[in-house]
Amino acid sequence: MISVTRIFKAPVVILSLSALECLSLESIRTSGYNAWRAFKMRRKAMIVVTGGSGFVGKALITRLAQQGEPVRVLSASGRKAFAGLGQSVEVVQGNLYDAESLYRAMIGAHTVFHLASAQWWGKKRDLERIDIRGTQNVIAAGRSARIGRLVVLSHLGAASASAFTLLRVKGQVEEMVRTSGLAYTIFRSGIVFGQGDTFVNGIAQLLRANPFIFLQPAQGESLLHPLYIGDLIEALVRSMEHLDTVDQTLSIGGPEYMTFNEMVRTIMRVTKARRLIVPVPPWTLRAFANLLSRFFPYFPLTSQWLDLLAANRTAPMGALYDLFEMQPRRFEDTILTYMRGRPYRIELLRTLLRRRPRRIA
């Protein structure tokens, strides 16, 4: 791997224009013009995050602020959502459909992490509006502001021809980014879990929804590749220093594969919520989820949730080590640190009582 930090730790370093010119020639040969341009802008320049109020966005902004990186967040709710993160976090009030605020957020940025998505609670029209139209607007603003690199988070299994809405939309977003003319990095990740995640904590809530049974799509044999949020954030941050991640689509996951059934049984064991697992045809669960969403907009079971179980979704084992020399954390060992004893029945009630906003993002 070629990294900026390693380049500057080479035995001979001449901090002069001629040395940088030589480096640029080598970069052009190995990673292309986009890689060199992204590197030139990477000197404590501004980092922009969209979707900063989400699970991944919050974790990324917190990490960058702790490192003292200058961070700019595009947020419809303004500064109050990011109070306490320090002066290095600048908030631009606006949204993905306001060209002026998007441009103001991106001007002078070397890296834009585009994380805004309706992947959990949105309906199909929300996915098309936020993920597709929103990405189109981000790309247009990025071109105008001449950003260094656009980093996008996608899913393992994303494909523009997929029969499943979430994976199809993510595949379309990937194609837009690849043909944008911007330097880019696309991360396809497995299920991201952590203390504030929706998927794994959603399973724990569903286990509390019925004291006797848990409805599982089919036999739960789809193969998953869960990735801890801390490891994902570390990979995102390290990618800024790696030239060879520019104009690449990276598939990453944790240190183990597991079926959905194995994941559910692990969560039952950790949370001490023993239930009889009842296999149900996936179309039945999808219809059930669509019905419940009319009355409980934030019910943990959604169509997008089921899309992620539609097929095996795995990355090459050891990808994080090969890319960034990282040793990701194991699923059960990690959820033991925050799931045991957690009041998931109360969390489920709070989730059911949440009202859907008039407009997502």
Give a quick precis of the structure.
This protein is an alpha/beta fold.
Please tell me about this protein's structure:
The protein has helices at residues 4-8, 17-30, 33-40, 55-66, 99-106, 124-145, 165-178, 199-209, 229-239, 260-271, 282-295, 303-307, 319-324, 331-335, 344-353, and strands spanning 46-50, 71-75, 89-93, 109-114, 149-155, 184-189, 192-193, 213-217, 223-224, 227-228, 248-252, 258-259, 276-280. It has 361 residues and is α/β, with parallel strands linked by helices. It has a domain at 4-192 and 228-255 and 313-328: NAD(P)-binding Rossmann-like Domain (Rossmann fold, 3-Layer(aba) Sandwich). The protein has a 7-stranded parallel β-sheet, with helices on both faces. Strand 5, helix 7 and strand 6 (184-189) form a beta-alpha-beta unit. The protein is globular and about 55 Å long. The model is unreliable at 2-31 (pLDDT under 50). Residues 51-191 form the NAD(P)-binding domain. GO terms for molecular function: protein-containing complex binding.
- Helix percentage: 40-55%
Distance between the termini: 37 Å
For the record, what is the CATH homologous superfamily label of one domain? NAD(P)-binding Rossmann-like Domain
Q: Which stretches are low in confidence, meaning pLDDT under 50 for 5 or more residues running?
A: 2-31
Let me know the average pLDDT: 87
- Helix count equals 15
What fraction strand? 15-25%
Q: Could you say which overall geometry the principal axes of the C-alpha atoms support?
A: globular
Radius of gyration: 21 Å
Alpha-beta classification: alpha/beta
Instruction: Give the SSE string.
Output: HHHEHEEHEHEHEEHEEEHEEHEHHHHH
Second-tier CATH architecture of one domain: 3-Layer(aba) Sandwich
CATH topology of one domain, by name, is Rossmann fold
Organism: Candidatus Thermofonsia Clade 1 bacterium
GO molecular function, one term: protein-containing complex binding
Pfam families: NAD_binding_10 (PF13460)
InterPro entries: ComplexI_NDUFA9_subunit, NAD(P)-bd_dom, NAD(P)-bd_dom_sf
